[in-house]
Prior knowledge:
This protein has three domains: 37-336, 3-Layer(aba) Sandwich (Rossmann fold), CATH 3.40.50; 351-425, no CATH class; 459-536, no CATH class. It is built from 18 helices and nine strands. It has helices spanning 44-49, 84-100, 126-134, 190-199, 228-241, 253-260, 281-301, 304-307, 313-331, 333-339, 351-358, 370-374, 390-393, 406-410, 434-439, 463-467, 487-491, 524-556; strands at residues 63-65, 68-70, 116-120, 139-144, 157-161, 175-181, 201-210, 568-571, 574-577. A hairpin with a 2-residue loop joins β8 (568-571) and β9 (574-577). α2 runs antiparallel to α7 and α4 packs across α6.
Amino acid sequence: MQDTDDHSFSLISEPGIETIYTPTDQGTDEYEFVFDDSRSDCSHQDDASSCCTSLTPSVFDYEHSYGRRFHAYLGGRYPLPNDEGEQCRELVEHLLMEQLMDGRHFLSDIGDEPQRIIDLGTGNGAWAIDVADLYPSTTVIGTDLSPIQCNSTPPNASMFVEDCEDPYWANGHNFDLVHFRGMAGFLLDLDAMVANAHEHIKGGGWIEFQDFDYTVRCDDGTMQKDDPLRVFFETCAQGIRKYGCTNFGRKDVRKSMISAGFLQAQVVTKKVPISCWPKDEGLKDLGILMEANILELIGSMSVKPLIALGMSDEEREEMACVFRAIMPAAVESPASAILNHSATPYSFRFSPFLRQTYQVGLSPDRPVCKAFQSGHCPNGTRCPERHVSDSKTSQPTGGLNSLVCKHWLRGLCKKGEHCEFLHEYNLRKMPECNFFMRNGYCSNGDECLYLHIDPQSRLPPCPHYDMGFCPLGPNCSKKHVRRKLCVFYLAGFCPDGPECKEGAHPKWSKDLEKPTLKSEEKKEDDMRMEFAQDDMDRQRDQPRDRDRDDGGRHQRGGHGGHGGRGKWRGRGGRYRGRGH
């Protein structure tokens, strides 16, 4: 009766663990328990309320050391602090677990009307309070070594300070659910704890462990054994085992349940990312919560667990600081490897020629040549500095209409830095796609780097529509632009006149031409004239572009695409062709 991770604990070889925690004689003088088996016929609430006394002040005499606060009852039993920072971390862990379980508080099938539920190691009591609100008629008990729970608990919830591993079970019998969260690794004797819980649940009752495995793993196997994330948590695990928690990172909880007599032992395993690198929104939210949980856990783990290993204060602080510094880079490495990708440098025999003649491969941030600005540079094209005129010094990448150079996009612009167009990848300043402009479509589709301008945007506005009504409606050959009309003009007079900014002033004119219908297909004469104009354009552009385009076509081995100067033209669903 358990839902936890089958691989929740890493196996770290550590021979000869020395236990530094020994139980003290502190007992009933701090917290007295009175339980009489003869009163088993009483109600559960009465049974629970009669088994303890009020807290004594010594329970609040917390241990303050190394800048953190630790529990006082059975001092030294639990190696992690109980201050506000740790309580915030437990709350984040609670939210993370709730989201990981799709909003459910547990996975055990306890029915719709459970009678008694106990949360051992409740911490800040968030889980017990939520369950008490969910089941108002259920008695919910939470126990912990620290009295840090909220005072405003539901009437059916009770919080007690006790050691859950005490053989004397002071909380009654017949529990529908015994719940542990983050406790499996901190129990001194997991087998005895599970066996004791088995004796106090009712027939058909459940026990559930919810634990995170803080052994960092990597799906693609690229994480090294000496990875800082892995080393930090393995080191802390060894320190926690020094406190007698020998099961931390090792014990299979399922085996302990089967040994205690539980049936239908189940295991639910879920992966949790670190940081927000996943594309899935749900995993991204889990990663954000887990990152916040781990960053706060660093401070809690780097105190007593590392001190138990004999580390000095300087070594502990250095290890924690290094871990905090490298963790953002480590958890974001999948995205960083893509965003910060650098191409492998190549070198060819003609590379020096391109570098000296066309400045290809030189840094764009290199200094400007002062000799060239003064009038003449003796090094000419071999100068390692930038040759820009005074007008381009302030904006060396400026150019004609601020458009990107198409030859630079293809790989080489012979003008180099003297080109009047931009030499940069800027999708907002790309030239218009000539193929799309002539044919109405582009073979490259959405992957085309050039601008695809809608032909409808080039149409002139319809004057009839501007006056208020166009009889042809959507069949008009001109563009119908919706404009906000001036309310003052519609009322009869606008004091701003032509300079009005409130809206348009429609005017009636008797000299307007009649609107014309859209022509779905061009006339034969228009098509013939357009083909002739295309031939003239190609003949005019051929001498100028031959040197630039021939090399690229020969390397690609054909004349396909835009660079091939094909003679096919398309209009709608019809195609007409002219041979060479």
